[in-house]
Design goal:
elongated; 78% helix
């Protein structure tokens, strides 16, 4: 019988090797390279880093990576919406409030669209998933544009950039599915 420590070591080694073997479909790196090659707005390093946040990404196929990317977008979008609500409570400038109202509206639409796109991906309804994800890619920029148009400094630039990147990555990977 193998000692327990040897068994644990072999199990850990097998898991480590499994996670570093690319799936038959495509690796995270290959998928991000293709996504960045098809869309100049996608940053390869951000794509790889983000997808690797999910431990399942090392064994996911392209559909799985699209679902992972969409799932990564959701909590960041929800956190951004929460930040917008907090900022609205303390905002005193009329223009800033107007911009924040626009952001609240766009993120209020974005979050259900992400939920619908995940469901559509899981059900292999690619056209629906692409439609929902296309809408999500514009929302963070719409929020940011409101600040630029009224010449107000945006307190959400980082969040909008991150959510926009993740939604764009999710759409690009979904587009690879056909």
């Amino acid at each position: 019988m193998t000692p327990p420590s040897s068994t644990c070591f072999l199990l850990a080694l097998a898991l480590l090797l499994y996670c570093h073997l690319p799936p038959a479909d495509a690796s995270v790196e290959e998928t991000c390279e293709a996504a960045a090659g098809n869309d100049p707005n996608i940053h390869y390093d951000f794509c790889v880093k983000s997808l690797h946040e999910n431990p399942g990404s090392c064994s996911a196929d392209t559909k799985g990576l699209a679902i992972i990317a969409t799932n990564l977008s959701y909590p960041r979008a929800a956190a951004t919406k929460s930040k917008v609500k907090s900022l609205l409570q303390v905002a005193t400038d009329r223009k800033a409030k107007q911009c924040l109202q626009t952001c609240l509206s766009t993120y209020s639409d974005l979050i259900p669209a992400l939920t619908e796109s995940i469901s559509a991906l899981e059900d292999d309804r690619l056209w629906d998933a692409k439609t929902y994800l296309s809408a999500t890619t514009e929302s963070p920029q719409d929020c940011e544009d409101g600040f630029e148009e009224l010449r107000v400094s945006s307190p959400l630039s980082d969040e909008n950039g991150e959510v926009g990147q993740l939604c764009t990555i999710a759409l690009a990977i979904t587009n690879m599915l056909g």
